[in-house]
């Protein structure tokens, strides 16, 4: 045991506890929602990178956190893992997620870094077995090191492509070994700054082949989890190839991967793309590629990805409404890809941030389930499109021609009158539940 969280008790569900006690007031893991335990609906995960590897910097300032495990040795990597699992136990978190660079020190060669990685994976595996915490997904950090300044799969240097492919292979092996339920490919620098030095067609082809190789390797090793892509627009690269769900779907179709790869959708990235979170979730569901979510929020007055813990129940409720409509999570879950503010220095801040976020998600889930049970939103949608139940309208879509439809308009006296979309009424309806 470490002493990092000394004096902090395991967090329990106690909705009537005094206001100064750190407890769950809405998240009750065993509460039944739509016939399933709340824990099994939400499938919460801690992000290793933000919780244990992030030093508290921002674009204008460096490290503010001082953690006893910061440093590039295997002893410190093991200490970081010890603290992580203590936090998982305090929170009752069922899952966690990592990048390779979060959990092992970078060494002076690929082979040495791989040895470090394999050693810490074995150490983490032992702790998982003892505690029962599971791996929601693993991924590779192909963006932080200077070698990735021009991308990984899309890099103009084939040696960087090769380094990246070898790294993904190792991370997929580790995820498989730890019985991870998904593997994520996040192209943090898969994009370009200027067309003056960029061959778009070549880079897209490289990215497509890279993803094909990852899928091929998944089947070769018998990994049963999902391969996920996480879209992100702009930041840090001006033009990201994986801009949003629709962009990624077009990419998957181009390379024959639409039945092999699903989406890991982040709230903050959706906002940066000019969408709402629920839009991206609904789009992924409609396209049949919904997989998992990263739950966080951005500061709406800032133009960059601030990765804050969620605190807006209406936003979260609309997101889980789309998740539930999509059938809920299969292998996916709710990963808190969120970090403390750089002034939140204390161990208690890290626990409290997750407790508050879990309560917000629990409130959102229950509101979403109540809306689905009530059926009012779906009834309003059905009523808006009821005209398409008419056999004539169905025929227009099935095999109608412009000439046939023109005849129907001219001879049938069609003269449509606009009908209200009732947006404000529906917004009032949502507010009844949140």
Q: Care to describe what's here?
A:
With 434 residues, the protein is α/β, with parallel strands linked by helices. It has two domains: 343 residues, Alpha-Beta Barrel (TIM Barrel); 54 residues, no CATH class. It is 47% helix and 10% strand. Strands 3-4-5-6-8-10-11-12 form an eight-stranded parallel beta barrel, surrounded by five helices. The protein has a two-stranded antiparallel sheet with strand order 1-2. Helix 11 links the parallel strand 11 and strand 12. Helix 3 packs parallel to helix 5 and helix 11 crosses helix 12. The longest helix has 28 residues. The two termini are 41 Å apart. The model has no long low-confidence stretch (mean pLDDT 97). Its cofactor is Mg(2+). Its EC number is 5.3.1.5.
What is the CATH topology descriptor of the largest domain?
TIM Barrel
Which class best fits the helix and strand makeup? alpha/beta
Number of domains: 2
Percent helix: 40-55%
Strand content: 5-15%
Radius of gyration: 24 Å
The beta-strand count equals 12
- Regions with little confidence, pLDDT below 50 for 5+ residues: none
Q: Count up the helices.
A: 16
- Biggest β-sheet: strands ordered side by side in the sheet: 3-4-5-6-8-10-11-12
Order of helices and strands: EEHEHHEHHEHEEHEEHEHHEHEHHHHH
Distance between the termini: 41 Å
Shape: globular
Q: Summarize this, please?
A:
The chain is of the alpha/beta class.
Topology:
Blueprint: E1 32-33, E2 36-37, H1 38-42, E3 44-47, H2 48-53, H3 74-91, E4 95-99, H4 100-103, H5 110-131, E5 134-139, H6 158-177, E6 182-185, E7 191-192, H7 200-221, E8 226-229, E9 239-240, H8 245-254, E10 261-266, H9 267-272, H10 277-287, E11 290-294, H11 313-325, E12 334-336, H12 347-374, H13 376-384, H14 391-399, H15 402-411, H16 423-431
Helix pairs in contact: 3-5, 5-6, 6-7, 10-11, 11-12
């Amino acid at each position: 045991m470490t002493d990092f969280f000394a004096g902090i008790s395991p967090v329990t569900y106690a909705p009537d506890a005094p206001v100064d006690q750190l407890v769950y007031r809405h998240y009750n893991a065993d509460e039944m929602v739509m016939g399933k335990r709340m824990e099994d609906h939400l499938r919460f995960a801690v992000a290793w990178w933000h919780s244990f590897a992030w030093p508290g910097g921002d674009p204008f300032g460096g490290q503010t956190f001082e953690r006893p495990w910061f440093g590039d040795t295997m002893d410190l990597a093991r200490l970081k893992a010890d603290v992580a699992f203590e936090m998982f136990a305090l929170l009752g978190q069922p899952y966690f997620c990592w990048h390779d660079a979060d959990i092992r020190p970078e060494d002076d060669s690929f082979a040495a870094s791989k040895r470090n990685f394999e050693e810490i994976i074995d150490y983490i595996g032992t702790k998982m077995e003892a505690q029962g915490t599971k791996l929601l997904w693993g991924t590779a950090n192909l963006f932080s090191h200077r070698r990735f300044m021009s991308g990984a799969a899309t890099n103009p240097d084939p040696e960087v492509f090769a380094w990246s492919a070898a790294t993904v292979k190792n991370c997929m092996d580790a995820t498989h070994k730890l019985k991870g339920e998904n593997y994520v490919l996040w192209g943090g620098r898969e994009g370009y700054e200027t067309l003056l030095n960029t061959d778009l067609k070549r880079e897209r082809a490289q990215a497509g082949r890279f993803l094909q190789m990852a899928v091929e390797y998944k089947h070769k090793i018998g990994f049963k989890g999902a391969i996920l892509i996480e879209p992100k627009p702009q930041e840090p690269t001006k033009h990201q190839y994986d801009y949003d769900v629709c962009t990624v779907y077009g990419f998957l179709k181009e390379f024959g991967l639409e039945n092999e790869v699903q989406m890991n959708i982040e709230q903050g990235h959706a906002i940066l793309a000019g969408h709402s979170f629920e839009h991206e979730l609904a789009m992924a569901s409609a396209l049949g590629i919904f997989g998992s979510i990263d739950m966080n929020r951005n500061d709406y007055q800032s133009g960059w990805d601030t990765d804050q813990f969620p605190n807006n129940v209406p936003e979260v409720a609309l997101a889980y409404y789309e998740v539930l409509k999509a059938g809920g999570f299969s292998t996916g879950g709710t990963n808190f890809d969120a970090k403390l503010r750089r002034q939140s220095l204390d161990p208690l801040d890290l626990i409290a941030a997750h407790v508050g976020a879990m309560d917000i998600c629990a409130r959102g889930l229950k509101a979403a389930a109540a809306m689905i049970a009530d059926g009012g939103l779906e009834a309003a949608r059905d009523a808006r499109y009821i005209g398409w139940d008419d056999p004539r309208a169905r025929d227009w879509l099935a095999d109608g021609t412009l000439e046939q439809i023109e005849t129907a308009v001219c001879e049938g006296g069609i003269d449509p009158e606009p009908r209200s979309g009732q947006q404000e009424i529906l917004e009032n309806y949502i507010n009844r539940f949140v």
